[in-house]
Amino acid sequence: MVYLLLVLGFVLLVKGADYFVESTAAIAKLLRISPLLVGLTIVAFGTGAPEATVSIIAALEGSAGVTLGNVVGSNIINIALVVGVTAFLSPLKVTNATIKKEIPFAFLACIVLLVLMSDQYLENNAVNVITRGDGIIFLLFFAIFLYYVIEAARNNRSQMEKEITEQPDKRKWGRHILFSTGGLAAIIFGGYLVVESSTEIAIRFGMSETLVGLTIVAIGSSLPELVISVTAALKKESEIALGNIVGSSIFNILFVLGAASLIIPLPVETKIYFDVIVMLILTIVLFIFSRTECKVGKLEGLLLVAAYIGYLVYIIIRN
């Protein structure tokens, strides 16, 4: 039975991503805005739902330490593994706005996290903790990001309305919304089935729960981003692919940590600093790669995947 659930999970992931990408791209055309902006918002926040759910529930249940690890780990997987695999399969085109604004904003989010979690170093406190006050700061930065996206969408729509004279078929709205919502639901549920069933299979074969958590579960929680980004890139909707990844990284740090730390202060373990530094370095590397011919190519994608494998080996040995 567990093998059937695994197959069903993968089917839901693949078909859900297929419908979701096509429908969100169509919605972008109906709204007359760039697919990149849809990727930064609707797609990114939707695929970030699993991480948000896990982190907020962990905070509610008092397992606050899980929240920070989940967010940082998911962002590392997104930037290294998801971008790497996607770019290796189909080079990702990068817009000027992404290079000049979105990726730097993701870098800023990493810096804000590093500063707010360094109470011992900056304020000589006894412990490092992300407080409720820090949570408000995260959410204020998230509000600034949303304002930027809304203004960018408004300007982009005005420009596209000048270029496109054909009126959109409003009868297709309901169909595209239904398919995008249904596709996202299939992705999230399919990801859940894959994680649960593959974890059970792995334990049957003698893998420890710790190793399973660091590999299968960590990657499984990022399956929505991976599947959607790969599908979008293969469908030549690379703006959605990269927007999804960058938007998810910003959403995870600013919204998820902001909301979770408002529920309960989040203690910071010393070893998580290494992971945050890795996340910061990978964001810089993504920025550098994006500036080379305004795309992330196959070789660069391969280097990112290799970097994630090296990081994965290290954390397995460390833990």
Strand-helix topology:
Elements: H1 2-31, H2 35-47, H3 49-60, H4 64-89, E1 92-93, H5 96-116, H6 119-123, E2 129-130, H7 132-163, H8 173-204, H9 209-221, H10 223-234, H11 238-263, E3 266-267, H12 272-291, E4 295-296, H13 298-318
Antiparallel strand pairs: 1-4, 2-3
Helix pairs in contact: 1-2, 1-8, 1-10, 2-11, 3-4, 3-11, 4-10, 4-11, 4-12, 4-13, 5-7, 5-11, 5-12, 7-11, 8-9, 10-11
What does this structure look like?
Keywords: Membrane, Transmembrane, Transmembrane helix. It is found in: Membrane. This protein has 319 residues and is mostly helical. It has one domain (2-163, 173-318): A middle domain of Talin 1, CATH 1.20.1420. The protein is built from 13 helices and four strands. Helix 1 runs antiparallel to helix 8 (173-204). The longest helix has 32 residues, at 132-163. The mean pLDDT is 77.
